[in-house]
């Protein structure tokens, strides 16, 4: 059973309850808005939309675990700003990737 639906004519705007303290008017869903919005509002709107995906920890239909050790999270966050395509700038990262 499919729980999602395609966007209709009435779904062309994003209405965020929690970002309403920053944004009074609705925002376009499928294109960039004409004016900028506060970064807090953008975060809240995107976070609200992602919350609709569900919680991966509660997905008992999958045999793949989505939980990681806290040390893995720390390593990911410590290296998230590296440009992995620039192999000359990050040679150790290139070696790690090649050894996998």
Automatic annotation (TrEMBL):
GO cellular component, one term: cytosol
Necessary cofactors: pyridoxal 5'-phosphate
InterPro entries (UniProt xref): Glutamate_decarboxylase, PyrdxlP-dep_de-COase, PyrdxlP-dep_Trfase
Any GO BP: L-glutamate catabolic process
Entries under Pfam families matching the protein: Pyridoxal_deC (PF00282)
Keywords: Calmodulin-binding, Pyridoxal phosphate
MF annotations from Gene Ontology: calmodulin binding; glutamate decarboxylase activity; pyridoxal phosphate binding
Family affiliation: Belongs to the group II decarboxylase family.
Protein name, as recorded: GLUTAMATE DECARBOXYLASE
């Amino acid at each position: 059973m499919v729980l999602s639906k395609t966007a209709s004519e009435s779904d062309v705007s994003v209405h965020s309850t929690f970002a309403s303290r920053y944004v009074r008017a609705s925002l376009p869903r499928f294109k960039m808005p004409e004016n900028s919005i506060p970064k807090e509002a953008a975060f809240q709107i995107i976070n609200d939309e992602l919350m609709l995906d569900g919680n991966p920890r509660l997905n008992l239909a999958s045999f793949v675990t989505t939980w990681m050790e806290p040390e893995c999270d720390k390593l990911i966050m410590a290296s998230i700003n590296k440009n992995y395509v620039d192999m000359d700038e990050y040679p150790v990262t290139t070696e790690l990737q090649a050894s996998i």
